[in-house]
Sequence to fold (268 residues):
Amino acid sequence: MKTMRYLEVGQMDDLGRLDTPLHRLDARIKMVTVAVFIIAVMSFPRYEVSGLMPLFVFPFALIGVGKIPLGCIYKKVLPALPFALFVGLFNPLIDRDPMLTLGPLALSGGWLSFASILLRFTLTVSAALTLVACTGIHRLCAGLEQLGVPSLFAVQILFLYRYLFVIGDESIRMFRSVQIRSTGSKKLSLRVYCALIGHLLIRSIDRAQRIYRAMVSRGFDGQIRLLHRTQPGWRDAIFLLGWIAFFISVRHRNPARIVGCWLTGEGL
Fold:
């Protein structure tokens, strides 16, 4: 469907149905591993840059083993990048004390913290998107429920993701019909946009009620069900413990700094 390709919502579901060793792991184990990874990333000092670089091994390893197209992940990272840029935009103006010298160039603490924010954003968002792509939203929400997250919250996340493209389809059809009916005017007024948003809200509520009634008539009782429930095994334990050991080692021993000292002949 053209609208779904435009929103690229269905692509993540297609990737979640692949059959790879990563996809066959228990969803709860993958979620706990990604959560520990995010905690490790956020635990670094504010000026740390080189120490974060080795952590790119984790998302790239998941992308490679899970046979996930790299462009699919980073096409979804880029639209959210302006938020990270806005968070660290004023750091170079506020923190001007020089902290690093690269030849004739002196970098202030503001630039280092700005680069650190961008690296943390890229690492955490790419890991979260890879988790969805290698698990599937249905198994992901079922795993959240098994981990003790309230069932209502897990179901709401599932519905929000599942029917996001429905709202997008409605909005695209509405704007397209307005453009067809417009008499040569290229720009729509604010009044027209407000009216379109109001109509979209009404249509979304009406569509949600119809979908809910259809689901209840087919036996929906608020629980997420899977055809095949997985149980953690020895492969899951190796995956979890191995990556946690890697995160701890990177956090306490900076591999990039060790390699740099070895190449320059300086003492560690």
